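FIELD: query
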Amino acid sequence: MKNLLNPKWILFLNSIPLLILSFILYNDYSIIKSLLDEETHSLWFQFSSALTLLFVGNLAFAIYHYIKKIELNYNYAIYSSIFYLVYLYCYFQHLNEIVPSTIPDWMISGNLFLHMGTFIMPTLIHSILIFTLIFTKDIDKASALKNFLALIAIPIITYLTSQIGLPILHQIDTNFSIHFIIIAFILTTFLFLFFLIRLFYILILKKGNAWKKYQLAWKIPVCILFPILGLLINNGVSSFSQLFVNTNGIFGNFSSPWFYLFALVNGVLLCLPKFKNYRLELLLFALKTILFTYIVYFFFVFLPYLPFALLAIIALGTGFLMLTPIMIFVIQSIQLYNDFNGLTSQFSKKTLLIIAVVAFSVLPATITFSYIQDKSVIKEALEYVYNPDFEKEYKIDIHSLENTLFSIKASKKSKDAFVFGENLPYLNTYFNWLVLDNLTLSDTKLNYIERIFFGEKNKSREFLNRSTTKDNVTITKANSNSVYNEKQHAWKSTIDLEITNHDRDLSEYATKINLPEGCYISDYYLYVGDKKEYGLLTEKKSALWVFNNIRNENKDPGLLYYLNKNTIAFKVFPFAINETRKTGIEILHKEPISLTIDDENFTLGDSLQRNNNLETKNAFYVTATAKKNLQKVIRKPYYHFVVDASIDISNKATIYTDIIEDIIEKQPLEHKSKISLINSYTETFDYNSNWKKNNTKNTFKNGFYLDRAIKNILFETYKKQSIETYPIIVVLSNNLNKAIIENNFSNYTSNYYESELFYTINADYEITSHSLVNNPLETVNKVSSIPSKNTISCLKYEQNGQTYLLKDNNQLSVLPNATIDFDNASNKNWENGIKMQTQYLHSIFHPKEYQKEWIELIRASFASHIMNPYTSFIVVENEAQKAALLSKQQKVLSGNKALDLDEETPQMSEPSLLLLLAIVLLFFYYKKIH
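FIELD: result
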């Protein structure tokens, strides 16, 4: 412990924490600075300057003592204690002014109260340890009993003084009383921690026979009973029968058996006597070093709460358990130091240091390795579900996936808990960084993945969601204008709207716009008050996150983003009663189009100005004019039966085999049928005489993942580019309501032009039709038989030796293409829009490079100022919202595409959880003294 007088500890316990704290504060300030008034700016400058001076002062002490090769002394301890306590006092006095209540919580990185305590407390504890060493130089003369009496006296005197002094202070000026109480609280807490640490320092080093003889009398309670009792109380366990129930903890979810086991084993190791066998001593040294990581972890977990320990003791009685980590930290540090010195007679210092470093790294390395495994599993699961390689065979580690999903849910649930709840402090932060790239998975995606792999759906958390209806918010005025660009051979059209809320306060306008092929949104505006604000073009998830947060504050966001390859979501919020708001969009398109927004129809462009002399061969698209000269093709159908093989359907297997044979017998088709058995995975084979064996030997398990099965079929149709055949998709299941489908299949219907329908048959042979592009689980019609004759044609188009099938209509068609050059993307050029769409279409069926293509398409969107399915136009109210948006965008672009920032509709901002803790403790204290 005497090593703490080495000036190098200033770097670890002061300089590095302050640099991290400064980084956090700077990031928060850079986002909210535009919302702060001049006085608040001045406060930020004053506190940042003071923090800089404190940092420089401590660093000067370190450099001076290092150069002079002298140990730290009471001068440093006095300097650090006084100045940092004064800084903390002033900071917390002005916290509500530094971050005004008008600043939304979502704009700052986290709890600034907690951050300040976390990163400054190491310096204060270091000062207390230095005082302990200085005032206990002669251990034989130090009295553990006197120190213990002083320790007990502080809470007693504090309580008695409060009984007498508080009534007197009530008669004095309120501001003086508050300041006096806070200062007294800080000083008594500082003294309390000093006597606590000094007591255990004396007990460990005391050489008297009495202390040696009866050391187990205090070691067993402190090292074994207190940690286990603390875990039980934290986890809300009232009986040992509930020991391992997953509960919401006060300071975190420490209900895992490992926490209890580590606490017990570590306590026993600390209570063991010295052994003469040096090999056994080396083993115990290594084990204690391994578990020292566990103690250091809890030391840092409770570090920010140490100032409340005295108050908790007075108010709650069992509050002394908050001090257990620091007590054991002192005991174990001294034991390890003594063990190390004792073993140097048998082993070299270099060997012992290597053993110590390796042992100390065991738990962190184990956790890291586990998290890396989780990252691999969740990455593969997300790829399988959201960006599948249809030609790859997946085998997900279900056990690891279940653990990873539990960790994600635990981290999310902590937001609703008292202090940390089901979160594991610091470990969840590490988990989120290493496994999730500081992002998360929404409850929707979590439930979706669980249904696929575990055949179940957990109840989602409920979030605040205002009731909005579109009926009372309608378009009351609409205008459009189109201008033809001769250079681009394309149109630029603007649509201006006036939208009115007729009767409901705080309503939202929300609608969908179906864009024809080859149409792209290149600008968006919304009037905020009397000012016309143009939309920012940003990454889509970041825009949705900011929109929902602003919406929770009743501010002025407007939003445009893709729902699928041709459908746009359009939202404006809020509308007061009878309020009319003006908004508009700009669209680039190659040919004249008709567009509908709600009940308003727009004809954009003039067919008389259409350029009919454009080349018909193009790498990216085929015009409506060129399509008139293409060969028509009528393809022949074949059956593709999709058989439910989920856990709920095993008793229906033989019924479905009979139905399939009956259909093939009564309605035979020219081409051979295919069959897919589906649960979490899809197994596909040709219909033949042995297919029944495949069906009966199939294991019925997990969810009914119909989404993947249909996408597999559509992918095969796209991949073959067959001009002869297409599949009729027939699903056999009695549990269509349990079928797992993410959205619809409109993105996947390339080369599937004959029909937008698929069919389902249950065990009673009832046949219904369903749409591939609209609400697939809803019935379109009941039919008596499956239509098996095709009269719908498509168009055959050949280019560079490759054959494409196009939809037979009077609209431009886009060709999928992967080799796109965006280096010279110019602003609002229609050709850049078609390039982005053609690469997006290619990426849907070729997701191996989806992460790279995702980034490329976002960059191309920014460069060309044209929205694509990965970007969004959003209007925000002020610079702070813009800064928060750009900060979130940077985080998203560095993470996994399938991960989320938050829920679709986040909760309202809540008060600081640490402040809630302080309020509760103060309440109990107030009740005790009145």
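FIELD: remark
The domain at 635-792 is CATH 3.40.50.410 (Rossmann fold).
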